Prior knowledge:
- The chain is of the alpha/beta class and 325 residues long.
- The protein has helices spanning 51-55, 58-63, 131-134, 138-151, 168-179, 190-199, 213-220, 234-242, 277-287, 305-311, and strands spanning 8-14, 24-29, 37-47, 71-72, 76-84, 96-100, 114-118, 122-124, 159-163, 183-188, 204-207, 225-230, 244-253, 267-271, 296-300, 319-323.
- It is globular.
- The site of NADP nicotinamide-adenine-dinucleotide phosphate has 27 residues, from helix 4, helix 5 and strand 10.
Amino acid sequence: MKNKSHQTMRAVAIDEFGGIEKMKPRELPVPEVATDEILIRVETAGVGVWDPFDREGGFAKEFGTQPHFPHVLGWDGAGTVEEVGADVQSLKRGDRVYGINDFMNPKGGFYAEYAVIKANNAATIPPALSTRNAGVLATDGVTALDGLARALQLKAGESILILGASGGVGHLAVQLAKRMKARVLAVASGRDGVEFVKRLGADKVIDGHQEDILKAAHEFAPQGLDAALLMTGGKAADQAITALRTGGRAAYPNGVPDVPQTSEGVKVMSYNGEPSSQTFATLNKLIDGGPFEVHIARTFKLEDAAEAQKALNDHYLGKLALVLS
Ligand SMILES: NC(=O)c1ccc[n+]([C@@H]2O[C@H](COP(=O)([O-])OP(=O)(O)OC[C@H]3O[C@@H](n4cnc5c(N)ncnc54)[C@H](OP(=O)(O)O)[C@@H]3O)[C@@H](O)[C@H]2O)c1
């Protein structure tokens, strides 16, 4: 049980949807744990590129969800289990865990000292990863794995282009695709992005802002690529889809703008990263297969969460994070 001094917690919340100025450090009650939930003492919270959309009320509007204010922001993170609900068998107090919050959870999110999530939305952290770095793994790792395994059904020996390979989802997708024994053409951002993704083991890396994607794809897979995972849209996504062989397939998580919806002879599909015990188990198993990097470009204190959201507009590699302890 949390002790008396932990009945309230520091958090960053909004009282209404809107701009970055709505984000306020607050003292709020620690959320109560239901029978199927866990209470996590948060060490790191991921700062997602979708967090500003959440703050502005974009998700609430899109899905017709009634918001609960104050709304504590933050979709994912990692820390230590402080308390488990009566029905939870899979985790225990003291476990190091990472996890994803339920959509618009009225109990709040991970921009806080404590977060309550469903036990099924969490997993123990692979031994080789620090709790700090695992804080940015849950959403991006599940989204990368679901894209490769569930949407694209990637097979060993297939060629895949990963667009946005130096970003949050992309850098994990590159490593997971290699573990799945695919041939990976990574399209990264900037010279630093190219160096970073080379280190992660991609077979070929190009800078998507400077180099010709179609030419690189043709050299990499002269008969056309088997698959493409798209973390950004526009012309680069168009070219990646054009580089697919007949019968090839492309996938992108919902939220990526400007992706062509169809193209002759290929399948283009959207999907969501969906946490489940099975997906976390597969993710952890793949991560356990050797050195695996979950990259945090910059960290911010909880109180500086607004600065962190501003920094989402900068060029950076991997992901941004709030560090609480
Ligand atoms: N539906 C879901 O379940 C779900 C879950 C997670 C994420 N998402 C969505 O998936 C997308 C990716 O998320 P993320 O966290 O990976 O975002 P991210 O870190 O911003 O990744 C996108 C990357 O693409 C790079 N990029 C842009 N244009 C490029 C080009 N022409 N060539 C090479 N790289 C290029 C960006 O770098 P620069 O900024 O430096 O150009 C950035 O590193 C977002 O739209 C997010 O909302 C959806």
